[in-house]
Amino acid sequence: MGRRFFWVIVVGLILLFDNVPIQAFSQSSLPVIISVPSIVNGFRAKLTASVTITGNKVYWVSFQPSWLSWFTLNTNPSYLDNNLRLSGIFQDYYFSPGAAVSMTYESTGASSSCGPHYISVWIGYIGKYGPASDIVNMPFTEECPPPSPPPPPPPSNISITVSPNALYPSGLGLQPTTSQIHVSVTNADGSAATAAQNLLFTVSVPPDHHTQLSLENRGGHANSGSRPLGIFQGKNPQDYHLAVGDQNNEYQFQDTTDSNGNLDLTYTSPAAGGVILIQVSLLHDSSGAFDPAPSAVIIGNGTASAGIDVRVPGLVHLPDDPDLYTKDGGTIYHPGPCLPKFASSWEKCDPNTDYTEGYPNIDINHYGNPLFMDKIVAITQEFKAVFPSETVLLNDMSLPLGGVFDINGDWEPPHLDHQEGEAVDYNLLYFPLGFNSTSVEAERLAWFIRRKHLNIHVEGDHWHIQMKPGQF
């Protein structure tokens, strides 16, 4: 009894260990030949693992990849999935010697899939001591593809040119009133862009620092909101932008270059004089794509600026001469000297300075053509020589750069003749001029004016004196 039990234990141990999987590369004792390539190449690589049957009673072949970044591409048509077990009871169905089974896999191309891997091939067969199954791990290496070169940085250089950069205000019948704007976008190395580029344009005027110079650069306009800033027209009809400023006198629009990074626009000046500032920036979101939202990022140093000087050239400032005349007419829209007793509430004349509140010693409404200015001064000198006790009041002339003189701050020109520096509103303090001016002073003044070949237009409570056509 004891000897029989001993042999039962021995046979049981043999059968147990015969079913322990044979680890990597132990093919010599198996009735099969396993073939797996040692190296496969990179992205979307394909690998075929094959098993050739060399002995009898092989009833089971199964392939199992050791990683998830490869997937089954195809199998032998006779078998299903990864488990190539013959149907039926294994003792009754076996692979024939010389038969071959295979499985083909394909890499997903994920960067994590490259490197060393193995395929586990599981073989079921009738061994020396009955049914057995062994696993063989077949190693191979998926070569990592060379890293892709980084994408080129988005174009970062931008330039803008304007020709000509000095224009007359529109509406005066003077030329030129249009400029050609050219924007060019290039790569960091200076080479031409190879795709259309998205641009953000910001159009504005200089800020008001409550100084004479800052107001001159604004054309003499302290008012904000709805300021006309000009028209931008591209080659296509839809590329039309009527620039009207917001409360900060700023207007933005977006446009796109051609495939070579170039954009051409025609600019038409507004009716108001002033320095028009144009800033153009490359517009991208964080991924480099076009972002139509106002929060879009302006990339790198991709910003360029240009200015257009909209003015009637040659206007000069009428100097102060309190012994000869008194200046008047300053308002909150066009600050300047003013007389509190004549000022309306909206003019906000400071009685302590005789200037517009907040703009002491600033005179923005007394500019004119030098020839016209000389005539006005000469007329006043002749008049004061005869009537030294009378006070001559010189009200509005033209703004520093000419163009629309909107006395109501609405960008409309009731002062139609005050746009080119050739007109002034003239009055007398003690013998006011107007429709019923019959005083000796008025008659003598009219004679002095006509002798200088100037026109007189009676406007309510003052005279509007203007150059005759062709006198410039």
Helix and strand topology:
Elements: H1 2-18, E1 32-35, E2 39-41, E3 46-53, E4 58-65, E5 70-75, E6 83-85, E7 100-107, E8 115-127, E9 130-143, E10 157-163, E11 166-167, E12 178-186, E13 198-204, H2 212-217, E14 228-233, E15 240-244, E16 250-256, E17 262-268, E18 274-284, E19 297-310, E20 316-317, E21 326-327, E22 349-350, E23 355-356, E24 367-368, H3 370-386, E25 392-394, E26 423-428, H4 440-451, E27 454-459, E28 462-467
Parallel strand pairs: 2-9, 11-19, 21-25
Antiparallel strand pairs: 1-3, 3-7, 4-6, 4-8, 5-7, 8-9, 10-12, 12-17, 13-16, 13-18, 14-15, 14-17, 18-19, 20-24, 22-23, 25-26, 26-28, 27-28
Helix pairs in contact: 3-4
Question: Which keywords apply here?
Answer:
single chain, 472 residues, mainly beta, Immunoglobulin-like, Muramoyl-pentapeptide Carboxypeptidase, domain 2, 3 domains, five-stranded mixed sheet, five-stranded antiparallel sheet, 4 helices, 28 strands, 11% helix, disordered N terminus
Describe the structure.
By secondary structure, the protein is mostly beta strands. The protein has three domains: 2-143, Immunoglobulins (Immunoglobulin-like), CATH 2.60.40; 157-310, Immunoglobulin-like (Sandwich), CATH 2.60.40.10; 316-467, Muramoyl-pentapeptide Carboxypeptidase, domain 2 (2-Layer Sandwich), CATH 3.30.1380. It is 11% helix and 37% strand. It is built from four helices and 28 strands. It has helices at residues 2-18, 212-217, 370-386, 440-451; strands at 32-35, 39-41, 46-53, 58-65, 70-75, 83-85, 100-107, 115-127, 130-143, 157-163, 166-167, 178-186, 198-204, 228-233, 240-244, 250-256, 262-268, 274-284, 297-310, 316-317, 326-327, 349-350, 355-356, 367-368, 392-394, 423-428, 454-459, 462-467. The strands form seven sheets. It has a five-stranded mixed sheet with strand order 2-9-8-4-6, with no helix packed on it. A five-stranded antiparallel sheet has the order 10-12-17-14-15, with no helix packed on it. It has a five-stranded mixed sheet with strand order 11-19-18-13-16, with no helix packed on it. Helix 3 packs antiparallel against helix 4 (440-451). The longest helix is centred in the N-terminal third of the chain and has 17 residues, at 2-18. The protein starts with a helix and ends in a 5-residue tail after the last strand.
